[in-house]
Amino acid sequence: MLALQLLDGLEAGTDEAGRGCLAGPVTAAAVILPKDFSNEILNDSKQLSEKKREILRPVIELEALTFGVAHIYPVEIDKINILNASILGMHQAIAKLSTVPEHIIVDGNKFKPYKDIPYQTIIKGDGKYLNIAAASVLAKTYRDAYMEKIHEEFPMYNWKKNKGYPTVEHREAIKKYGTTKYHRMSFRLLPEQYSLDL
Questions:
Q1: Which of 25, 48, 171, 198 could be a cystine partner for 52, CB 3.0 to 4.6 Å?
Q2: Beta strand residue intervals within 73-167, DSSP E
């Protein structure tokens, strides 16, 4: 179980999912948990099975003081780059909180100030702080649900399984069928993209 390290006052944890994907949005979540929150299985979403994440999502939504989730779509990602899109997503997720946090903790090492709220970036924070872990679970489950939905539209890419990540199967499908409106055109979608015969 993660150590619940909370500062005095309302602290929001924030994280994103889908940064390294070739298709679909980058999805961010922000969560404020009550001080007495505890959960035996909550951890960094990457350490949890899909089944455990699905069990945790309604628990977090029910027990959090407030939470917010935001998708930043490929057109925007291509325009402002993936790092800025990730931070924008976290800002939008924080903006959806029904209570303004007094402090923000962010998974990773990059963030931009949100309003005048003090923040701290924490590398591997999703494995150290419950509120970041909770945000990582919401970001991942909301993004997975979105990818499963658009899978119905373009089943040949098998997003239901690969969720838009650069698997061999996904790259092969791009090679065979080309790209869709859900692909990030600024990403290196195929390994040989930059080795053009001039």
A1: 48
A2: 103-107, 119-122
Tokens of 43: 């951890």
User: Is 194 inside a domain boundary?
Assistant: no
Nearest to 130 by CA among 47, 66, 35, 48: 35
Cα separation, 70 vs 60, whole angstroms: 16
Is 15 annotated in a binding site? The answer is yes
Question: pLDDT tens across 118-162, in order?
Answer: 999 999 998 899 999 999 999 999 999 999 999 999 999 999 999
Asked whether the beta carbons of 15 and 135 are under 8 A apart, the reply is yes
* Structural element, H or E, at residue 69: strand 66-72
155 within domain boundaries:
no
Q: Which amino acid is at 31?
A: V
138 lies in some domain:
yes
Residues counted in the chain: 198
Residue 6 has pLDDT above 80, yes or no: no
16 is in an annotated binding site: yes
In three-state secondary structure terms, 125 is helix
**Integer angstrom CA distances of residue 35 from 3, 62, 133, 143, 194:** 12, 15, 15, 27, 50
Q: Read off the CATH number of the domain in which 103 is found.
A: 3.30.420.10
Q: Side chain identity at 3, as an amino acid letter? A: A
CA dihedral sign, ordered 190, 20, 71, 1: positive
Domain range enclosing 80? 11-144
